[in-house]
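Field: COMPLEX_INPUT
Field: COMPONENT_COUNT = three
Field: RESIDUE_TOTAL = 981
Field: MODE = joint
Values follow.
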Amino acid sequence: MAKIALRRVTKSFGSKVAVDDLNLEIEDGEFVIVVGPSGCGKTTTLRMIAGFETPNMGTLHIGGTLMNHVPPKDRNLAMVFQNYALFPHMSVERNLSFGLRIRHTSKKDINTQVHEIAEMLSIDGLLDRKPSQLSGGERQRVALGRALLRKPQAFLLDEPLSNLDAALRTQMRFELKRIHTQFPVTTVYVTHDQVEAMTMADRIVLMNKGEIQQVARPETLYADPANVFAAGFIGSPKINLFSAQVDHSGGQSVLHCLATAIPVTTEIADRLRSAHSETVTIGIRPEEIVLRSPMDHNPGQADISGIVEVIEPLGAETHIAVRVGNETLTCRTPPRSGFEVGSAINLCFDVAQATIFDGTSGLRLC
Amino acid sequence: MTTVARPPGSDDIVVAEPRLRSYIRHAVTTTWLLPSAALLIGLFVIPTIYAIYLGFTNLELLGQYAQNYSFTGLANLQRMVHDPTFWLSVKLTLIFVIGSGIVAQTVLGLALALLAQRVNVVVRASVGAIVILAWVLPEIAVAFVWYSFSQAGGTLSHLFGTPKSDLLSTAPMLVVCLANAWRGTAFSMLLLSAGLRNVPGEVDEAAQLEGAGYWRRLFTVTLPIMRPTLMINLLLITLATISDFTLIYAMTQGGPGNQTAILPVYMYIEAFQFNQLGYGTTIALTLVLIGAILSIAYIRQLRPELKDSTS
Amino acid sequence: MTYQARSLKGDEVSADQLAASTSDSSAPAVIQKRRSLSRPVLTLLMVIIGVVFLLPLLWLILASFNPGADDTLALPHPFSLTNYHLVIHAGAGAAIMNSLYLAGVSTIIATAVSTMAGFMLARRKIRFKGLILILVLFLTGLPVTLLLIPTYQIFVDLGWLNSKFYTSLVLASMSVPFSIWLLKNFIGQVPGEFEEAAAIEGASEISILFRIVIPLIIPGILVSAILTFINSWGSFLIPLVLDANPSDTPGAVGIYQFMSANGQVQFGQLAAYSVLFSVPVIILYLISSRWLSGGFSFAGGVKG
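Field: COMPLEX_OUTPUT
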C-alpha cells in the first residue's frame, strides 16, 4: 500500500497538451476516482502512474520513491483495463496466475491463491475456460481477480464498468466497494461517469482539458463546486445554470435574471463587489426549487412565474422542466404533483442557498 | 487553460531517462531491424542501383567485356531505339498485358463474379474451386499443360478445328494469351467478388425501382461504384503480367522466331543467350519504367476516390 | 453499417407467379417483363466456363496416370502409376527435394527476418518510419527482371553462383518486402493492451515476447510463411540463372529441362512430374485459405 504523489506533472503528445501542471496527492489506502469528459487527461494521468507514459515535466512518486522512468513491471501495481486485456490464448486459470508464474511462485501456492480469489469472485467454475467463452461480467471479474492476486501497492482501474450493461454496472459498483473494504489498497479509478464517482469515491478528482478542476469528497463536490464546470458535471439531473446581471445601483443590490430582479443579502453583495463581477452565473440544484401552483400564491412571497414544458415521471419522483423567459429550469417534485404541461406555475428558491459563480471566470464566489 | 505545449521553464522539473535503459532499448530495436535491412539493401537496393549503372555499360556474359567492361553512355539506348526486335517486343508486351491481362482476365473474372451471385452454392463452389486451382498451379506446370494442349493433334487444336496444326507455331500469341488468361482469372474473380459484395444492395434496388434493366444497372450503377476495386485489379494484373517470364519462356522460348518475345523474355535472351548483359539491363530498366508509368496512371485514376473517402 | 450485395432473384417474376397474377381477377395484375436472364441459363453459362477451365486440368491428371499418354484428352488405358515411377527415377524426386530446400530455407529466413522487422515497425517509435514503410511498399512492386542481371553479376564477383543457399537468400529477399508489410499490419491490429497488461503484471520484455506476443501473431506468421513458400517453390528464372549446378536443379527448372530433354516429349511422365510438383503447393493453399477464409471461401461468396 502506498501513497501516490504527482507534482507539476505535464504530458504532451506533439503539440497537444494532455495533462497540464498537475498536482495530486493520493493517500495510502484511499479510493480516488478521477472523472471528467473524454479528452480531459484522466486516462493519460492513469497511464503515467502505471508507467505506460512518461511525464514530460514534473515528478511521480509512489510509496515515496521517484518513479518517472521505472518500467511498469517494476512498479508493483495492478491494472484493470477498459477492455480487460485478458490473454485470449490462455485459460482463466492461467490468466489469473500469470503474475504469480512470472515470479516463479510455487505451484502449490499458485493453486491455493488462485482458488481463493476465484471463489471470492464467484468465478471458480470458469477456471478452464478461455476468455472468449466468458460473458462481459465474468471477464471483468477475471480481470479483477488477476489484479487482486498480485497484492500490489496500488490498484489502477481504467473505466472498468463502461463495457457492462446498466444492471451489471450497478451490481459491480457494490462489488468493487465491498472488495475495497476487504482489501483497502490505494486505488485510482478513472471514469467519465459521475454516478460511479459519486457513489464509490473517498475523494473525487475532477478534470477538464488537462487540468484539475477540483479535488474533494463527493458531498463537498456536490454542495460546494469550485467552478461552473464542476457544478455542471456533478449531479443528475444537471444543476440549473443561468446568467444574471449584478446591479448595485439601488439601496439593496439585486441580480437581474429570469425576467425579474432578485434581491441579495449584504454579505453576498459585498462578495460580488469585491470580485468586481458584473455578470454572474447562478447555479440552483433541481431539488432546491419549490414549485407551487399560481393559485397557492401567498402575497409577500417572491415567486417567479413560468410555464411547464416537459414532465418526466420517474416513479419515485418527477422531473419537471419549466420555461422562464429564455431559460429552462429543471425541478424535482414528488410523484403525482398534479402539474400539467402548458400550465402556468410558480417557482420559488432561496438565492442564499444557491451557488453563484463569476460570469467570466466561472469560479465560485459564494 | 493552455493547449499548446511550452518548453520547460526555470522552475519546472524534468527527470531525464536513465541513459543505459535508453541505449538498450535502441540497441534492441536496431538489432531486430538489421537483418531485414541487410537483406533488402544487399539484395534489393544495391542491385537496383547497380542495374541503373549496368544499363549504360557494355558488360557481357563472356569474353573480353565480361571482366573489362566500361561505361558506354547512351550507346545502349541508341541501340535499343534502333532495334526492331525491341519495338516488336514492346508491342507484344502490350498485346500480352492488355489482351490476356486486362481484357481476358478482368472480363472473365467479372463475369464469374457476377454469375456467382446468382447461381446456387454447389455450382458456385465447384466452378470457383476449378478456376482457383488453375491459379494455384505452379507456373511451369501451366506452361507444360498448355504446351501440350496446343500441339498438333492436341486437344486445343481439336477444339479450334485445326487438328493438324501446331497452334503454338501458327498462333503463338493467341495460345500464350489464352494460357495466361486461364491462369490468372481466379485473381480477378476473387478481387471483383469482394468488390461486388461492397456495392450497397440498396443502390441497386433503387435503380431497379427506377426501371433500369440489368445491363443498364451494371454499367451505370454497379461498375462505377466498383471503380476503385477495378482500378486496383488492373494495376495488380498489369504489374504481374508485364514482368512475367516463366509461362512464355517455358512454352515457346520467345519463338517461333521472336513472335512471343515479350520484354522479360527478350531481356533474358539478349542477356544470357547473346551474352549482352549490359544491353539486357537496359531493356529491363525500360520495362520497369513502363510499369512505373502505368502504375502512376492507374493511381491517378484512383485519386478522386481516395479523396472522397478521406474527406 | 455493413452493406450486402444481394442476389437479384427478388425482382424476377417466375412463370408461376405470372400465371397466378393474371388469373387472379380480384387484383390487377402487374406484369413485369423479365429483362434479365433466368437462373438456369446463367447456371449453364457458369458450368460451361467451369468445364472449359477444367479441360487442361483434367488432361493433366488423366495423362499422369496414362503410360501411353499423348497430347489428347483421353482416359488412362490402363490406369497405372508407371509415369510417376519413371519420372521420379529420372530425377523428379531429387529435383523436388531441391525445391524443398530452396523454398524451406528461403521461407525460414524471410519469415524470421520479416517478423522481427514487422514487430519493431508496428510497436516502436522509429525515426523516418514513414519513409521506411513507403520504401518497403515500393520494393514490393519491383519486378525480379530488374534485379536478375545485377544480382548475377554481383554473385559472379562474390563467387556465390551455383549455390543452393545463396539462391535461397535471393528468394528470401524477394519475399521480405511484402512479408514485412503483412506482418507490420497484422501486428498493428493486435491491441497493445495485452502487452501492457503483461508488463504491469511484472513480465520482462523477453517474457512478454514469448508468452504473449508470439502466440498472438502466429496466424500472421503462418500466412506470411506459406505465401513465401509458395512463391519460392514455383520460382523459375532465379534458380535458372543463379544456379547451373545440375544436382541443384529445382522442380520448376527440372520440368522445363525434361520438356526439351528427350527428342519426343514424354507427355505422361511430364504430367506426372507436374502433378507431383503441384501437390505440395495445392495442399498449402488449402491450409492457408482456412485462415484467410473471408476472401478465399467462395462458397460463402454471397451474403444473405
